[in-house]
Amino acid sequence: MALNIDGIIGNSPALREVYKVLEKVAPTDSTVLVTGESGTGKELLVRALHKNSKRADKPFVPINCGAIPKELLESELFGHEKGAFTHAIRSRPGRFELADGGTIFLDEIGEMDLSLQVKILRALQEKEIERVGGTGTKKVDVRVVAATNRDLEGEVAAGRFREDLFYRLNVIPMHLPPLRERGEDIMALAEHFLKGFCQDKDRKQLSLGAQARAMLIGYDWPGNVRELENFMERLSILCEGPHVMPEDLPEKIQRAAGVEPTPVAAAESPQQGFRWPELKDMRDKGQGLKEFLDEIEERLLQEALAEASGVKNQAAELLGIKRTTLIEKLKKRNLLDS
Hints:
Layout: H1 13-25, E1 32-35, H2 42-51, E2 60-64, H3 70-78, H4 95-98, E3 103-107, H5 114-126, E4 128-129, E5 138-139, E6 143-148, H6 152-157, H7 163-169, E7 172-175, H8 185-200, E8 207-208, H9 210-218, H10 224-238, E9 243-244, H11 251-256, H12 279-285, H13 289-307, H14 312-319, H15 323-332
Parallel strand pairs: 1-6, 1-7, 2-3, 3-6, 8-9
Antiparallel strand pairs: 4-5
Helix pairs in contact: 8-10, 10-13, 13-14, 14-15
Protein name: Regulatory protein, Fis family
Keywords: ATP-binding, DNA-binding, Nucleotide-binding, Transcription, Transcription regulation
Pfam family, one: AAA_lid_14
């Protein structure tokens, strides 16, 4: 059967090695730990594991362990009984029960509190869970796949992650290489994203000029695929085209290529290059106030993530908000990925 890698773009030697492991591991029920830097597309790889498994027609249930407060995460994972805590007005199954027969994806497992790690370990060992406020256990048949951008062995050494849980999760390790190690994939991804964004915005397709292509390939992409995707969306909006030239690229890509960005003539002072959005802008887009402000906020979120190379703590600091607030906003817009 041909490997289903829908959504994963690229055929570089580094990615082909990942495909080889995926083909061997997917049909099994072994627990898998996917590692890789933020923005490399770990969730896409995990979804491919599920699609190519014997459980493909069963539920795939993801949960971001870093996006849910620790006092609520246990209930989200294992469910709760009526009256287990304030506002528990009815019993509710958790993600493990919802994934019964299929795959549960524990994203950002390195963010999980030590007290909860014990219960995950039990679920892996005994294949059973206990709801919050419950008095009995329930058997669950799930394949567990976890992902992290942290060095879990380092976290174990520092006492922040249980050693026994690490070895339970790390039965089959899979590492997704950073974009800088996938050279020939950069242009395939850039053209894919650019084509898609131009279609979404009903604008004429842009092409990448030779110099711009060389600069994109030469850039390190600290924010990986997510950063590249954000840049392509920006180009689809701001580039006057039809060809993307070096001066159209973000300043940090120009500087990385040894090109000094051309200063904006109007920006003689920090304020002169800035213009407040006007009512006309909203009308031109055919949007209401809420949609207009949502689009502005989403762009700022994406820019902060790109500037912070996908590190959420830094992005939150750039925006002047709490990390939990940032994660809530990203989750609301389906921008939260691995």
